[in-house]
Amino acid sequence: MKKIIFFFLFTLLLATSSTKTTFASNNQETNVVLEKNQTVNKDYFAAGNNVSLHGTVNGDAYLAGGNILVDGIVNGDLIAAGGTLIINGQIKHNIRVAGGTVVINNSQIGGNATIGAGSLMLGDTADLAGSMVAGAGNMQLLGTIGKGASVAGGRISISNLINGDVNVGSSNLTLDPSANIKGNLTYYSNNKATVNQGATVSGIIKQNKIPAYRKEISQGASAFFITTAITFKVVGFIAAFLIGLLLIYLLPVFSAGVSKTTRNHFWLSLGIGALTAILTPIIFIALLITIIGIPISFIFVFLIILMSYFAKIYISFVIGQKIFADRKTAPVWILLLGLVVFTVISMIPIIGGIFQAFAILVGLGAILITDRDYLLLLRSKKLI
Q1: CA distance 250 to 253
Q2: Per-position pLDDT tens, the chain of length 384
Q3: What dihedral angle (degrees, nearest 10) is formed by the CA atoms of 315, 320, 321, 322?
Q4: Is 161:142 a contact under the CB 8 Å cutoff?
Q5: How far apart are alpha carbons 216 and 64 in whole angstroms?
Q6: Cα 148 from Cα 161, distance rounded (Å)
Q7: I need a surface site. Which of 53, 152, 168, 265 has the fewest CB within 10 A?
Q8: CA distance linking residue 344 with residue 321, whole number of Å
Q9: Cβ proximity of 124 and 106 under 8 Å
């Protein structure tokens, strides 16, 4: 737990040369590689557009980037976030990963797996000794899972041994002929699961239908809620616009740095932002447990929430810059148009929520990267 807390604060504030960890990251580099003949006898941190781990890490591995490949050995936990993650190596303990596409092939994982992805595939040569908790739009579980699974997604197929109970939330669940569940199968769906001939479930199969949700309120109450929602939306837009102007005009150099990082290091920013989102609740709980860290825990969460709010503003500004391209337009109009576009897209059902989540993660990552760069600059000039 101490290592996780250290890593998060390390990423949030400053990379120092005196730490007892190995950190590989350079904004000027697009590729970060741990070669096959290299061994790291500590925790390993790597961030870049393309991150490859071919060697051996005798500790935990923390990776963030656009494309991540792990085909080496990690004798600890793997915590990673990025656009595409391919895991072919040996992980001794747990994996905690998030990404657009996650593929686990020919990999031996000694602990549990927690995964969030747009598309997830556990290959038929993969072996997960522990349990799986995962969410994905499309999920294929072709490999073996040692201690049960709790998964959710739009389309899920199970094609191998799961040695325990399985809980599923999905509108489209399929058990292929080679599926073998050594426990109960409980699924939440209004559609009946497809159980192909040859598939076996040792326990019971239970379907829980999701009841239809109906709004039964008066027209007056409905109008009140609609009016209130619109009012909050308008007030929120105006507040974001005014705060954005303050950020741009009071911190012009920093704001320009965040915008540049977002444009030039999009996937790196997304990876850092996603990793931050994963570690924030862990750090918060860890600080609460220490008792003396309770005040710090709430200050810490407040700072993350504040930076997430600023992330929305900076992403809106980048959107405005993209629209105006190279035209000489005042920042006030760039920000205004960017916020309008951001707000309109955010109001689209489903797509809007996904867009907001990705935008905030990218913006948060860009802010943290820029914070680190400026802290390093100030430190080099001995101003802090």
Answers
A1: 9
A2: 444 444 444 344 333 333 334 445 444 446 889 999 999 998 888 877 788 999 999 999 988 777 889 999 999 999 887 778 999 989 999 998 877 789 999 889 999 998 878 889 999 999 999 999 888 888 999 999 999 999 888 899 999 999 999 999 888 999 999 999 999 999 988 889 999 999 999 999 999 887 654 444 445 555 555 555 666 667 777 888 888 888 888 888 888 889 888 888 888 888 888 888 888 888 888 777 777 777 888 888 888 888 988 999 999 898 888 877 666 777 888 888 888 888 878 877 777 788 888 889 999 989 988 888 777 777 777 766
A3: 90
A4: no
A5: 46
A6: 10
A7: 152
A8: 17
A9: no
Provide the β-strand partners of residue 82: 65, 99
Q: Are 149 and 167 in contact (CB under 8 A)?
A: yes
Instruction: Provide φ and ψ at 220, rounded to 5°.
Output: -65, -45
- First-to-last alpha carbon distance for the chain, in angstroms, is 29
What SS3 class is residue 115? strand
As given in the structure block, the two tokens for residue 195 are 């159980």
